[in-house]
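Input:
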Amino acid sequence: MTAMTTPKTNRIWIAALLVAIGLAGGYVIVRLILFITADYHWVEKLAAGLLIFAETFIIIHGINYFRHIIQVLSAHGSLSNEPPVLPPSNDKPPVAIVVSSFREPLAVIENTLVCFHNLTYANKSIYLLDDTRYDQGSPEDNRQYRASVDALCRRIGIPVFRRKWHGAKAGMINDFLAFRAGEEREGFEIQSWGKPPVEPEKYMMVFDADMNPFPDTVEPLIATMEADPKLAFIQTPQYYTNFEANRVARAAGLQQVVFYEYICEGKGIEGAMFCCGTNVIFRRKALVDVGGFDETSVTEDIVTSVKFHMKGWRSAYSSKVCAFGMGPEDLGGYFKQQFRWALGTLGLFPHLVSLFIRRPRAMALSVWWEYIVSSTYYFIGTVFLLMVLTPICYLFFRIPTYFARPEIYFIVFIPYFALTLLVFFATLEQRQYRFRDIVLGQLLIAVTFPVYIQAAWSALLGKKGKFVVTPKAGANSLPLKSLWPQLLMIILCYTAVVWGFCRTYYEREVVSAVLVNMFWCLYHMLILGSVFYYNAAEPSNKQNV
Amino acid sequence: MQLSHQINRMFKTALLAWLAIHAGANAQPAQIPFAGVALEGYPIRVEQLSDAGRAIGMKPEIVVFFMQWPEIFEAGKSYFPRETFDLIWQSGAVPCLTWEPMTIRADQETAILADDILKGDYDDYLMAFALQSVRWPHPFIIRFAHEMNLDRYHWGTLKKDYGPESPAIYRKMFAYIVRFFRICGADNAIWCFCPNVDSVPNTGKSPQNNWNTIEKYYPGDDIIDVFGLDGYNWFKIGIAGSGRSFRAIFKTPVQCLKVMAPRKPLIVFETASPRSSGDRRPWLRDLLSSAQLWNLKGVVWFQVKKEMDWRLLEGELGPVWGAPLPENRAQEWINRLYYEKKRAAGKYSERN
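Output:
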């Protein structure tokens, strides 16, 4: 359907989005007024406060999402995902294409390097940054690995850079920048097959070792960078090739979609796009200006982005997919990935708040807002748990958290809930994503709630945790005992429904309130039940290249 | 009164039945081992597979074939037996490559020296081979340098140097090659340690040969995924006592491997009794009952006429093996093994 590009339909979209935002905002306001004015016991007030916090959290993120869609609509004139037309470029400034690899299998490195080699941009120098810790592990293994990496690079004709290990990827890229600037430090080593140019490259494009870029990736990005000298970096999306491997891979891929389709585009238009660490092109001058990558944080990418923005550099997002990677293929792998992302992002939240208090004028308010909203996203697990618990508490312990007569609830809640969901799915459908697929992506987030909660705890306590799950032998499903939080909630929801049924039958009081809460318990039970669907994902034996 | 009596009896029967089933489930189920064939020549042709299938009375579940190393490495040439692997996998069987580190020119076998391998002289070949394996989408068994406890092969050395140093040389060479595959990411290569049932030279003839025992060659649990054994019934007409049962041939070495690593799957990759031994059905029945007793994962028949005519005839193995077995069970088994390995390597879920 390309009919959706006329100004009239655009106005309808914007109107729908604005109404959705208005209803959502109105809902929160009504709830807050009821909460403040109602006269209840403090325990009930506390419970109600938590629920309002949860709802407000979701609505803030929801409104921000809709705001991004409006931004995309206003900027592009449509919701369709036609590839952006990027200006042609006549200049061909030198670009360093780098991949940082930490003991990656050679097949993975080979694929990436071959893809680099095939990039059509002529004025490029390719470097493998071998970040393998040769000071760890068995010397025999290390010697053989190192020799094999050298042999591979010699064959393809690509220089390998090594250095004395410090600060993971951020440290490696900083060292590489210093090396290219002509600095000589202890431990710097280059195995030069192919000749790196003398002058340091004006731009640097960074990929993770499992990313495979398309041949025409570089040209349009360079054109954009050349057109705007204050642009520090352009981030491009990260999609998965193993989309069809099984249901977890599919859902994980689809869950990325919500982020990359509209959120990133909106952030880009806002000038608040942060760097995601791979598939990104940097201006060397900008990196030098902010003193290189931040090495103090796990989320060096986002912290470095903040530094750029605070120093007046701009950032952009290009929605043209330029590289594919591999997503997780089972719940265990997905949980690990999400824990890492959640821990890193949530750890940023206190940092951002303190920066904001100290230097509120360092960035535009809208940019601050974007960073802070993004850094709180992974509280979603805690929020989800609160949402699941409140109807259970009501059914069992009669703790009211809503403080309103059912009529008011229906009048305020239903329109908001229905319209926001409708708009959410409709906007994604505009980009050819099917309802079912988007639901699958969202369900996967819901069943990950214990992982996000654990990450939130670790982040708030300042711990650097690791998430460990061991799948069953010979299969990729997790043992049921490691899914106890999901199972416990399912059982609680179920018993609460049964209890609620008894209450409606025997008490015949507040029937509509009990029914509403029973409905929510059932709803959450169904959502959480999808954990079985994902845990039964068939192993895929496709190789990872 | 009569009704309650009846219910009581029904209850008791049900309880007993449940107990019986439960007890049965607790005991080690005697799995029918996978039935495989070892075939001569390379590449394997499709008729060879169908002939072998007819002979053993079922689709082979494992297919073993043999390949040597090249004399000269040519860059860009494909060394990985992809077509043969495809053919075998598509037939429903698990392919097992017997990878012999030697060259053959005009029937002259020359073992590749471990020193040269460890020096890196074969790295180009190994890397090409391993990177090509990564691109094959299924797991396969790789029986590298099998029957190492026979002087006939003397892997890694010249024949004259086969001696007390050989086990250490062998272990080093094996570890180097497995590491190479691991570095390349070829986790679909399932490594097999496959000695011969008897060592030659052996301790029985002279105590100074006590270096030549199976366990001395074992490269280690972290390197080996699957155990194998080769052993034949060298029956000679007219020579009393030359015939041995499957149980007699394999009992001691099976015990030896079980002690070394009780949890590793064990497969007999080469066995046979010659046609000349007469009615082979009793021998086959003993084979099956022993294999079940020892919980062997599979048994591979040497379906080749070499030195003797070992080949099975239609109607010999089929009736012994009995009822048809679920299709692709060997492939499912090795897929699980591969999956575990891939996960232990921990790479795909660790990255973003």
